[in-house]
Fold:
Amino acid sequence: MTQDKTDKKDDFDLQEFLPYLLNRAAEESSLEFQQVYKDRYGMLRTEWRVLFHLGNYGEMTAKDIGERAKIHKTKVSRAVSKLEQRRYLTRTRSLSDRRVEELTLTTTGHAVYRDLRKVAEQYDAKLAGLFSQDESDLLRKMLWRLAHMS
Structure:
């Protein structure tokens, strides 16, 4: 009797596939923080990432944010529009290139950033607390290396 394809067990273990594990870990570890920026400010993931880039680095263009954060330009554009509607950022035409807009956080945007940064720092400490200091340092080092492979 021949074995049917549906009965065949593939020996590839998805649960041990590193990209799958990294994605699961990223999703699981971000859920609690995601709830905070969603509940407090009605933001989606791309919106808080744009907000944090502006909070961290100051004035930037949407293109700069997309390249630095590895976010597609249409997603950045949507996030910028939402943040501008909420009056968290302003757009100013570049004097050197009229096609480019410089993005800057408003006073309200800075306040939201500071609030969420505080929560992010506490949440980061909570996650790091799941490991010893050496494990946490090693995990950050390994994740940094994977995040900067290209």
About this structure: The longest strand covers residues 89-93. The domain at 31-147 is CATH 1.10.10.10 (Arc Repressor Mutant, subunit A). The mean pLDDT is 93. The two ends are 49 Å apart (CA to CA).
